[in-house]
Amino acid sequence: MKRRIVQGLAATAATALLLGGCGSGGEAAADETLDPDAPVTLTVSVWNLEGTPEFGALFDAYEAAHPNVTIEPVDILADDYPTKVTTMLAGGDSTDVITMKNVIDYARYATNGQLADVSDLAEETSDLAGLDAFDQDGSYFALPYRQDFWVLFYNKAIFDAVGEEYPTDLTWDEYAELAERITEEAAAAGVTPAEGQTTYGTYQHTWRSTVQAIADAQTDGDQLSGDYEFFAPYYERALELQDAGATLDFSTASTQKISYRTMFTTGQAAMLPMGSWFIAGLLQAEAAGETDVDWGIAPMPQAEDADEVTTFGSPTAFAVNKNAENSAAARDFVAWAASEEGAKAITAIGVVPSLQSDAITEAYFALEGMPTDETSRAAFEPDEVALEMPVAPTTSQVDQILNEEHQNIMTGSVPLEDALATMADRVQNEVG
Amino acid sequence: MTTALGPRTGTTAPLPAGTPAATRDRARPVRPWAKPLTYVLLVALSALLLVPFFWMVSASLKTNDQVFTVPIRWIPEELHWDNFVTIWDRVPLMTYLRNSAFLAGVITLLQVLTGSFAAYGFSKIRFPGRDGLFLAYIATIAVPWQAYMIPQYILMQRAGLVNTFTALILLQAFSAFGVFLMRQYYMSVPDELVEAARIDGLSEYGIYRRIMLPLSVPALASLALLTFVNTWNDFMGPFIYLTSNDLWTIQLGLRQFVGQFDAEYAMIMTGSVISVIPILLVFLLGQRYFIQGIATSGLKG
Amino acid sequence: MASTTLDRPAAAPRRGGPAGRRPAYVNRRQVRRNTLLGWSFILPNFVGFALLTLVPVIATFGIAFTRWNAYAAPEFTGLDNLTRLVGDENFRVALVNTLYYTVGHVPLTMAASLGLALALNRKIRGLAFFRTAAFFPYITSIVAVAVVWNMLYNPSQGPINQLLTTFGVSDPPGWTSDPTWAMPAVILTGVWKDMGYYMILFLAGLQTIPPELYEAAKTDGANALQRFRHVTVPCLRPTTFFVLIMLTIGSFKVFDLIVVMTNGGPGRSTLVLSQLIYREGIVNGRFGYSSAVALALFLLVLVITLLQYARNQRLET
């Protein structure tokens, strides 16, 4: 009998939990007016506060401009940031500002109605790179404050040692040839980072974007389309580089958790296609005396017939929680971070802001340790930055499939043509 | 005779307490080469078991850029002992260690107490519905935490317990694992022993306290040890429930060195080496009970 | 102190012990008394367990019959999620991989941990060191485990393949970077990591065996193997059962090890069910479907546990 009571209790509790609407609060007043003098404590979810100086820079600058506001960061570990934010929001958490680490998660929170509409703020802005990614059927639920895009990093010392010219506007074929040539020349000339190690012509990191996102950006293919023939030339080149030994092989790099940063700063790779966030990382490491690598940036290699520079990237944004305790103050912060003042604050530490203007670019290249040559400047202003991965309800599923088949191709487990066919087949049949 | 030996025949008259240990040494080698060979094998095996730990120590003495290299460099070019100093400045390590110790201690204590208490009910008292309830206990172990994490969090949020130690203690102190482990151990204690105590007029609580607890020291020690280690090393629980930095545990603290695009692995390994030390202490303390168990037969209490 | 009661003859009357058959004279009052007593022991643990584990688990099973994004109210969809499971290729792959892992991991870990416990349940010099060494894989940072094992497995430079080559294997496997060999590699690492953990449980179990039994068997002229079969195995049965169940469940739920070793790859070759649950729920935001996968996993484990339970009950009586 007791057992039945217990079972009954458990069932009741479970039903209550299920039918309770599960924290979909939405009571917060969206029309709350902002009193510029009333003291406010604004909570902002961030990842790895200590290791991500942009947050500190933004918060300090904002607090200086708004003496009545105290910002209280909610520090979440970078690795599992989406897991925690998803859980918090499901529980009806009232953190004011939620940082959107990537566009895919943004789309999910926005369609689930977890974020407050900030379309009016979006209308007031101009020249905000990456804003389009946050367009949800004409409404905006977040404003980007930083925009990263991919460039080609190169190690000047290695180029000098083997007597090659610094890269300027490479095509993909030139890039591949150059990488193979440098590998051979470095081996012949005895250029090694350390005993027993090899200097590779380039390092192609293991992420699928290294091949797939750039193919999407530079061709008319679409990663969500379910037709992946446009990947073929990009994969052929990546496999050829790997077979020629001009880059560390994918299997070793992925199983040994190789860090692209280590590959580059210790002189194991002469070139490195990577996101612009790495600039801030390099500047910081140099300032801390951790590395003295002499580096420059060039635009990403382009297709043969390209007449402008196309690369890919992804924005980072702030959004207002629908359950925010201080929604008016939160909106003000989000708008400010995307403004000229916010952009200045993060430019000062080498982070690329969303807001683009000549003044910002000037400030950026005036930074200590920044290469100032023409090519580096050109690389900093690509003609087009495509979104790394298009946003749709199916994005995360497609992402998983593309990633799995990417591993199959790069480890040589499945022949390229078969894997591309499987990719298409799986995206058409499994997603939905 | 051997056929008569079974788990329920444990009431064989015990040897007098003064029996010399030598006559019980069933592992006495017969062949002269057996002992050295055992040692050679054990040492080789230990080396194999300790290799990753050696890598961990080696990585803790490198700079971040030297941690992952191909081929692996086992002995760092220069030893960065300063990592072990720097880490105390970089993060509030003492706070994290204290929080971990507090959580692991309280959870272990509650787990051992309530687990062994409940196990007595599950093994030595017969009542309707008992076995079904017990199966429910075991069955929930089979559900991965990832599946019910969100409902559980919603429950905690409504109870206002998010971002408190209470949440974690409540979550982990009553796990089915401890009940199951202790129940199995009690099952191997002959019922006759309990019966005899009942006839002697001991209450069930008295039997639990005066007979079962002393008898189950090795099992209690292993439960305490495993619970302590699991709580100490748990990452996801504290990650989901603890937000304020001053409540963070050592495992959360170590992940602080993982950035969005890169990680400071030298610091992570330095911290990992430090975080192993308390576990080692607990292990060395706890494993004494397994040896004692050999010296004094489990049944003589 | 207990020894006074112990010296009583084994023929003490049985009353309500679990092993004894239930005597006919047990009346209703006795049942009620026992029920109250039993619950009084179980309750302190049960309250915490029921509220914080049982209720969320039951809620999860409820969610398995809905479409739920963790925010809006769930929408009841009947058996849709479960029927979708049947046709889901990801689920099929993950299920097969999980079974593969379990079938490999359980017996090997069982044998290794029991072997270790037997080897280290004797008085030898340096015992504390060897036991600690055996437990080390379990407490070594999982990142270190992944890196070192992947290095050992490295197809071209790894020592394992170098050894195989010297023994004349011309085409050694690619281990974690080869879809065919990734799972065996992960299983091997899993055994290596877990055996110290289960060794602890076996060591505790071995303490319950009265040395007198071994003495008696020895006097009867039983050799080491016979003593193992007729004393150790039956006396260790409750522990073996526990280890078997925990190992089986642990294998079905394997998550962390796979994530750091291969993260399900290459391709889907090591994708397991708990990873699928995580992906569908937290990553894709389909908590209804994610819960349905969890429900399927639960039912599967429940059936296997019940079979093992029934077998154990039979062996014990």
Descriptive account of the structure:
Chain A: Keywords: Signal, Sugar transport, Transport. Chain A is an alpha/beta fold and 432 residues long. Chain A folds into 2 domains: 32-148 and 314-377, D-Maltodextrin-Binding Protein, domain 2, CATH 3.40.190; 149-312 and 388-430, 3-Layer(aba) Sandwich (D-Maltodextrin-Binding Protein, domain 2), CATH 3.40.190. Chain A has 18 helices and 11 strands. In chain A, strand 1, helix 2 and strand 2 (69-76) form a beta-alpha-beta unit. In chain A, helix 2 crosses helix 14, helix 7 runs parallel beside helix 9 and helix 17 runs antiparallel to helix 18. The two termini of chain A are 46 Å apart. Mean pLDDT of chain A is 87; it is low at 1-16 and 18-30. With 301 residues, chain B is mainly alpha-helical. The longest helix of chain B is centred in the middle third of the chain and has 32 residues, at 93-124. The radius of gyration of chain B is 24 Å and the shape is globular. Chain C is an all-alpha fold. In chain C, 71% of the residues lie in helices and 1% in strands. Chain C is built from 14 helices and 2 strands, in the order H-H-E-E-H-H-H-H-H-H-H-H-H-H-H-H. Chain C has a two-stranded antiparallel sheet. The longest helix of chain C is centred in the N-terminal third of the chain and has 36 residues, at 28-63. At the B-C interface, helix 1, helix 4, helix 5, helix 6 and helix 7 of B face helix 1, helix 2, helix 5, helix 6 and helix 8 of C.
Main sheet of chain C: which strands, in order across?
A: 1-2
Order of helices and strands of chain C: HHEEHHHHHHHHHHHH
Run of helices and strands of chain A: HEHEHEHHEEEHHEHHHHEHEEHHHHEHH
Task: Tell me the overall shape of chain A.
Answer: globular
Instruction: Write down the CATH class of the largest domain in chain A.
Output: Alpha Beta
